[in-house]
From TrEMBL:
Protein name per the record: TetR/AcrR family transcriptional regulator
Organism classification: Bacteria, Bacillati, Actinomycetota, Actinomycetes, Kitasatosporales
GO molecular function: DNA-binding transcription factor activity; transcription cis-regulatory region binding
Species this chain originates from: Streptomyces albidoflavus
Chain spans, region Disordered: 1-44, 260-290
PANTHER family, per database record: HTH-TYPE TRANSCRIPTIONAL DUAL REGULATOR CECR (PTHR30055:SF146), HTH-TYPE TRANSCRIPTIONAL REGULATOR RUTR (PTHR30055)
Biased composition annotated in UniProt, kind: Low complexity: 14-32
Amino acid sequence: MAGKKTSEKHDGASARGAAAPSAPAAAPAALAKEPDGRTAKSEQTRTLILETALRLFQERGFDKTTMRAIAREAGVSTGNTYYYFASKEHLVQGFYDRIADEHRAAVAPVLARETGLEERFAGVLTAWLDIAAPYHEFAAQFFKNAADPASPLSPFSTDSSPARDAAIAIQRETLTGSRAKPPAELATLLPELMWLAQMGLVLYWVFDSSPDTERTRRLAVRGARLTARGVSLSRFRVLRPLVREVHELLMDFLPGASETLSAKERRKGGGEARGTAPEQPDVRERPAAD
């Protein structure tokens, strides 16, 4: 009997051991994590809501589209919609982020191929126009909100910082990867000025009624040529104060700009303007006394 009980105990332990998994079960595919920490399923839901919103903005207009209507068309609850996007403005921020990601991918071949600053900058600008073309019809509806410096849609708002930083990073790569060799003291200013030039182009594009926004495309090419010449001239020491003056003018004139762009660089640099070392006076450049 003792042997039988021992055998039964052993067999039961073996059965229990066989039933226990030898390794943790793999996570369901729906719970696989994306690089930003979201699960694949949540990212699908977020994308569905965003694409539905963009479609309704095109069909009904931004102001006439409600969050409830977006939820209904997407087939999700209104609460779930607000979970991913706190407002319609945040949906537009999602659109900004998508444009930034697509733009980053679209400019890669241009920046890998071209070495001239004019060609690189023109390629970056026209690539943005190509990506944004399907949304031109309702872009003006966004602009009236984006023009308000207190709006989260403003390109200078805190909410817009991911898309803004991505765009400035592209301009920095456009400049540093070119044959142009601007002075180190302007390394921070020039990419910001190039981004501001792009924002000016976007504003023109918003209200461009020419076929296929052809006038904006011509402006992009000519503006890139002018920018390249300006950067080339910035190598001359006598013209560098002019570049800084233009930058300071834009920082003071554009609402919110001074709090978002070079302000970060000033803080990094311990208070020095725009993250650069203070320029030492050059007596050779001082005009002779009368």
